[in-house]
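Entry 14. Ran structure prediction on the chain below.
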Amino acid sequence: MIKHTPGPWFADDKGYIWRRPLYELYEYGGGVAGDKPLASVQQGWWGENATGYPVQANARLIAAAPELLTAMQELIAAHAAEGKPTNGFVRKPATKEHQLGIFLAWQKIHEAIAKATGETE
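Output, structure tokens:
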């Protein structure tokens, strides 16, 4: 199975997805030598007189993909560690460590969603 490029990823306003923060790419007035975007979102058109796809929003969503994946994997792992149902309906009480793991996973999910929606930089 081929693995994805590990995150974090960063989106710019032109729809390019990078492996480095934008301030590192352009801190000396130009791109870092040999650095190429991981992906790009094209404007595209639905049809005549259409406004096209929301490039910046789609690029942000793609750039947040590694964080979303990690957060969901951690939440699944924390939830699974909580315990098996004892009678088909009732779960064993979670330990403080499991509760903390679930809380931290939810926190990462909220951060990744904020990144995908552009609520934070």
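The CA atoms of residues 78 and 97 lie 9 Å apart. Will compare against last week's run tomorrow.
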